[in-house]
Amino acid sequence: MGTKWNPYTHITDMVIEGLEQGVGPWSRPWQVKPGMDGILGLAPFNPLTKSGGRAYNGANTWLLAIRSIKYGWKDPRFCTFTQLAAKGWKVKEGQSGAKKVGGPGPSQVFFTFPQQIPYRDKETNEPIKDSKGNVKTWTSWQIKLYRVWNYEQLDGPEAWVTEEPEEVEATEPTELQHVKAWEVIEAWRQVVTTSFGGGKAYYQPGTDSIRLPEFEAFDTEEDALSTEFHEQVHSTGHKSRLDRFKESDGGFGSASYAFEELVAELGAANLMAATGVVSNGNIREDHVQYIQGWIKVLKKDNKALSKASGLAEKATKTVLENYEQTVSAVRENAEKAA
Fold it and tell me: Which residues have a Cβ under 8 Å from the Cβ of 256 and sit 6 or more positions away?
């Protein structure tokens, strides 16, 4: 008998394959239309949801990047078979994943959700109740996979046409382009002390502080933003916030260190997309240090990716909510002063 198919193992194997080819959470193979802002269009998204469009985030962005790079898709739009059928569209010849066709087939994304499982008596197998008669439960996180098709695999939808980017000279370090991203960062600097200097970027839990190289030390504005977002995501794990760290956590090279770096990189990718920053998709020097550690963590625990993705989403929400609160406070003070 063959090994039973496991969804966690399936998505983990896909990500490991991507990592071994240099495809990480920072990868962005999709073409972006000029003037686009926010997540839609910068990250892969489903434009046919009832809400008018929903972006994929966390590890799902990563999974779709791996597939897009593998098959050369530049269109960031994906939808389910039910949605494409409702539009009267069809899967192009040769794109089916059926054995006789051997095409790419649909890509897979996943969502996790909590399920309450009752504690049971070892002898009777009956649910255990508390003194008030309520069944005692524990939370089990379940995973659900969805199959989605890239628009380049379909006959019917309007093509994703982008203008050819103009040849421009490299931006000077002082000419900042990503205003919202810097506003989000500046708002978090009011929460966590940030200093500059030296050649390393790191978050220090003991002092709850971030240290970064001077802005001019980065090759591009995007590198500076992604690095600071990475450290800010780390800082959300402080005991006064999301309390993500444990006293037993190890240092560089340990599994817990690699896992936290994965959370930070997924969170940074989320924040880049949420603030409209398109990275060049290149591997930074610190990425090279992380990749082998991530592979080890993923091979050891097939649920590590879904756990890291969930924690990264919580961290992203924490940083963005702080920004929104800051904007609201500034607006209220301005109205009072008027």
Answer: 246, 248, 249, 250
* Prediction pTM value: 0.84
Alpha carbon distance 240, 293 (integer Å) = 27
Contact by Cβ (8 Å): 45, 54: yes
Q: Tokens representing 143?
A: 């995973």
pLDDT at residue number 51: 85
Residue type, position 16, single letter: I
Say how far apart CA 76 and CA 55 lie, in whole Å.
Answer: 10
Kindly state the helix (H) or strand (E) to which residue 322 belongs, with its residue range: helix 304-337
Mean pLDDT of 29-41: 72
Banded model confidence at residue 31, pLDDT cuts 50, 70, 90: confident
Whose tokens are 């009072």? That residue is: 336
Main-chain dihedrals φ then ψ at residue 19, nearest 5 degrees: -60, -40
134 phi and psi, to 5 degrees?
Answer: -85, 140
Determine the 3-state secondary structure of 83 from DSSP. Answer: helix
57: region left, alpha or beta (phi > 0 left; psi from -120 to 50 alpha): beta
Interatomic CA distance for residues 216 and 174, integer angstroms: 9
